[in-house]
Amino acid sequence: MNWKQILRLSGTMQSIIGLFMLIPTIMAMYYGEWLAFRAFIVSLVIIVAYVATILTIGKSWKSRGLNVRDVYLFVTLTWVVASALGAIPLHLTHTTTDYPSAYMEIMSGFTTTGLTTLADIEAAPRSILFWRSLTHWLGGMGIVVLFVALLPLVGVEGFQLFGAEAVGPTKSKLTPKIKNTALILWLIYVGVTLMETILLLAGGLSLYDSLTVTFGSVATGGFVTKNASIGYYNSAYVDVVVTIFMVMAGVNFTLYFALLRKKFTMVWRDTELKVYLTIYFVATVVTTISLTSSGTYQSVAQSLRYGAFHTASIMTTTGFATADYGTWPVLTQAIILMLMFIGGCAGSTGGGMKVTRLVTMFKLGRQNIRSLLHPKGIFTIQSESEKIAWKTVNAIAGFVAIYLALVLASTLVVASAGFDLLTSFAAGLISVGNIGLGLEAVGPAGAGFGPMPIYVKWFLSLMMLAGRLEIYTVFAIFTRTFWRR
Q1: For residues 343-369, average pLDDT
Q2: Where are the beta strands (DSSP E) in 300-412?
């Protein structure tokens, strides 16, 4: 294990997090939130001390690249330490009741889960809430991917770092150099962020609200600065803009690069995109019909507005809300529960199992049926015109199995604290899937995660991290093979 190189990169990574923390620190001074200002200063001092210590220890590192084990450990360590340091301001300002709650809150931010332990969000300092939302934006495209884009890492090392954190089973390079690929993805991400911010400003939102809502939208995170989430603004315009950008954020960002290069055929032929949009539009239509026929809303336009928003919010794992869908017809709640399992596209900022995995599993099932009918036949699974290697198919099947196992394990852990079955299941599902908003006690009108015991918060924090880093990256560290020489 190349510990010195891991420590050196870890220290450099946390220094980048510290630089971003300067933004809410300045905001705290501007708003006169002196308790928050002192908390940020203390946090920055701790970060500086941590970075100085780590870089001193790793100063004489050997000039050899990272192997796969080193990469997995570094990426996991980066997210764990970033959450630990990022939680300090929330704890020192008493925004949360205890440090485990603060840690869970920031882990929820960096992993773009969006579940919260705060009972009264609006009571927190504005600078703290901005930092909370900023963690969404950093974690959306990936803090390690940002690291690869900004710093000159060598060839395979940079690619392995990118691959260990990138969301989804496909991690193709847009350019020969992985550094350029990471930079392109972040530039597209920044561009989409600016677009939504400008549109929300045009809709009458303040710059502060526009930025925080945008951070939650493009990162499919779900943190906002209002107790009523997006419903606070009570604006059809805001709902439409946020809906559009949530759906956009659920699309593979490499397709936006293809559009910029005028490769329209590549986008049109993308199976995952077509399935993703089909599922979303069908779910929206069925939800709209159900809400209209049940009399939940007085007009089709209202039903479409709320139905389209929440199907986008749940499918892209954003977790925004404009209404309490816990009071909606059972059919619409069933659709929402189904969408929680699906998630966005690979290469998007969305969580969940990803559409491409479900498509591959469907093709695998279809192929197994054909094999039963034609025992001597030789069949392959293809994505567009390319054959999917059996190694990849097996990895996807294993991912789905472990994913469901983690949801069930999380259900048991939450249930052990005395919560009802639906709440426990929803809490596990939205933690592993990085969704943030579920049903019953963890739904739009529920008490949230604040009342949960400390051991549940630590466990769900681990589940959020595992879900964001695609499970294998995190759990490889807990195997005996990982630590063998």
Answers
A1: 88
A2: 382-383, 386-387
* 358 closest CA partner among 425, 263, 278, 476: 278
Tell me if 408 sits within 8 A of 428, measured CB to CB: yes
Cβ contacts of residue 142 below 8 Å, gap of 6+? 165, 166, 167
DSSP string, 359-414: HHHHHHHHHHHHHHH-TT-----EETTEEPPHHHHHHHHHHHHHHHHHHHHHHHHH
| Single-letter code of the amino acid located at 213 | V
Which residues are within 8 A (CB) of 328 and not within 5 positions of it... i.e. 6 or more apart? 290, 291, 294, 296
Of 139, 137, 304, 306, nearest in space to 213 by CA: 137
Classify residue 288: in a domain, yes or no: no
Higher pLDDT, 27 or 150: 27
Mean pLDDT over 47-57 rounds to 86
Q: Residue 388 and residue 394: Cα distance in Å, rounded?
A: 10
How far is the C-alpha of 148 from the C-alpha of 156, rounded, in Å?
12
Q: How far apart are CA 438 and CA 427, in angstroms?
A: 7
Residue 52 belongs to some domain of the structure:
no
For 122-171, how does the pLDDT look when each residue is reduced to its tens digit (9 = 90+)? 999 999 999 999 999 988 876 556 555 555 543 334 444 445 444 444 44
8 A C-beta contact, residue 24 and residue 127: yes
Phi-psi region of 275 (alpha: psi -120 to 50; beta: other; left: phi over 0): alpha
List of residues 6+ apart from 322 with CB closer than 8 A: 229, 230, 231, 239, 306, 309, 310
Q: What is the C-alpha separation between 161 and 77, in angstroms, rounded?
A: 12
Q: Domain for residue 230, yes or no?
A: yes
The count of domains in the chain is 1
Which residues have a Cβ under 8 Å from the Cβ of 223 and sit 6 or more positions away? 108, 109, 114, 116, 129, 132, 133, 136, 212, 215, 216
DSSP single-letter state for residue 351: -
The answer to whether 449 and 457 are in contact (CB under 8 A) is: yes
Residue 155's domain spans which residues?
65-253
Query: What is the token pair recorded at 55?
Result: 């870089």
The percent of residues above 70 in pLDDT, for the chain, comes to 89
Burial 68-81 (b: 16+ CB within 10 A, else e): ebbbbbbbbbbbbb
Q: Are 315 and 344 in contact (CB under 8 A)?
A: yes
Number of H helices, E strands in the chain: 21, 2
Give residue-wise pLDDT tens across range 273-332: 999 999 999 999 999 999 999 999 999 999 999 999 999 999 999 999 999 999 999 999
Residue 285 or 261, more confident: 285
Place of tokens 């809303």: 297
Amino acid in position 51:
V
Instruction: Give a yes or no: residue 212 inside a domain.
Output: yes
Backbone phi and psi for residue 18, each to the nearest 5 degrees, phi listed first: -60, -40
